[in-house]
Amino acid sequence: xxxxxxxxxxxxxxxxxxxVVALVLLALNPGWNAGPLFFRQxxxxxxxxxxxxxxxxxxxxxxxxxxxxxxxxxxDRITPLGRVLRRMRLDELPQVLNVLRGDMxxxxxxxxxxxxxxxxxxxxxxxxxxxxxxxxISGLAQTEVGYVSxxxxxxxxxxxxxxxxxxxxxxMDAWIVWRTLKVVFTRAGS
Length: 190
Prior knowledge:
two-stranded antiparallel ribbon
């Protein structure tokens, strides 16, 4: 209950930031990121159940995701404004609404695209265990392993997620928040 209360409080504090960024993007999108403001994608959540994750859109829209679980990211689809949003991690902000709905937590294993997650369930031992808790906007794997785009790299991510689940504490969450803010403000990664 303490974690859920902290999630709700943290998400509520971030809502005004989401609103301001959304207004700025509404003004910039027509010229730099034409298309819808938000991107919705089914992700695997707690108990391996699907939920619809919400993000600011950073790529040109397509009818359906055709990228397989072991394929590289489709860099050519990222828009100019999308690159900035990704570098600053602002595309993740709308997920505070997922936190308020109870689909996600502020800290926990990052949820994977549902179709890819189904592949990982079959290919990666203990992948199912990372879904014992709510997925997070940020987590130990994001701060320590970074972005992964293959099944081999996903195994490393799962190890970090399981370590987090076994050792979760207020202190570790605070450390992950600090590391996340460091990544955001130094614009490390993509």
